[in-house]
Amino acid sequence: MSNSTARTADEAASVCSVCGGTGWREISNGNERRVARCGCFFRSRADNLLASARIPTRYMRCEFSSYHTEGNPALGAAKMSAVKFVEQYPIDKTGLMFIGSIGTGKTHLAVATIKELITRKGVHCLFYEYRDLLKEIQNSYDEAAQSTELQVLRPIFETEVLVLDELGAIKPSQWVWDTVSFILNTRYNDNRTTIITTNLLDEPALAASGPRSSMRTDTLGDRIGERMRSRLHEMCRTVRVQGEDYRDKFRLGGLR
């Protein structure tokens, strides 16, 4: 069989037997006939949305069903918060901020959440790791770059639901503060939903909490500023993800 014949056979086999590839199916009720979207249309749309969501390959298998709570009530509560968010969206568009130590599955829950939104509700979602996003914006300033800052930021501003993973993962400069403020304020003003994950303690910045102790580690307030920390509390519900490091306990990759 030639390659062209094989392709033709594969294409024929992939055509929906219900709608014949039109995306519409006929519904009859007595003498009344009407059309409705075929299930294949929604499956195809979900596949396209998943492909464009920028979910890293290592996280593509993250589902609510594979998030192990192991009898830990805190992890179980975090999972239920994410499940409830999906169920109530878009009636309630308040985002989520997953806070917890490394390896407790914050990214797993964030990815599982947007995958459910995509497959169940056809919501346009986008995943960005905080450091990668800042680097991509910085690279756009290079004269040889193929994209401008606005081209990088436009999908960040316009996507219905944005996951910003590991917020505050790098020490801030004035440029970082300004850029993060610009992104979060734009999405806040446009009433768009943002899902955050962070390993940092949700506590005030140094200036707001007094002299720094030699043992003191940076907080979310230190890394993004008190003004933006306050704004996040308006944009998101805090979900605390507390438990053992999954990577140490189960040696599973892709859980952060």
Folded structure, characterized:
With 256 residues, the protein is α/β, with parallel strands linked by helices. Helices cover 46% and strands 15% of the residues. It has helices at residues 3-14, 39-52, 73-88, 106-121, 130-139, 149-158, 174-189, 206-209, 220-224, 226-235, 246-249, and strands at residues 24-29, 32-37, 95-99, 125-129, 161-165, 193-198, 236-240. A five-stranded parallel β-sheet has the order 4-5-6-3-7, sandwiched between helices. Strand 1 and strand 2 (32-37) form a beta hairpin. It starts with a helix and ends in a 7-residue tail after the last helix.
Strand content: 5-15%
Share of residues in helices = 40-55%
Rg for CA atoms: 22 Å
Mean pLDDT: 85
Structural class, please?
alpha/beta
How would a crystallographer describe the biggest sheet?
5 strands, parallel
* Oligomeric description of these chains: single chain
Following the backbone from N to C, one meets helices and strands in this order, namely: HEEHHEHEHHEHEHHHEH
What's the end-to-end separation, in Å? Answer: 48 Å
Sheet with the most strands: spatial strand order: 4-5-6-3-7
- The total beta strand count reads 7
- What shape does the CA trace take? globular
Number of helices: 11
Taking pLDDT < 50 over at least 5 consecutive residues as the criterion, the unreliable ranges are: 5-13
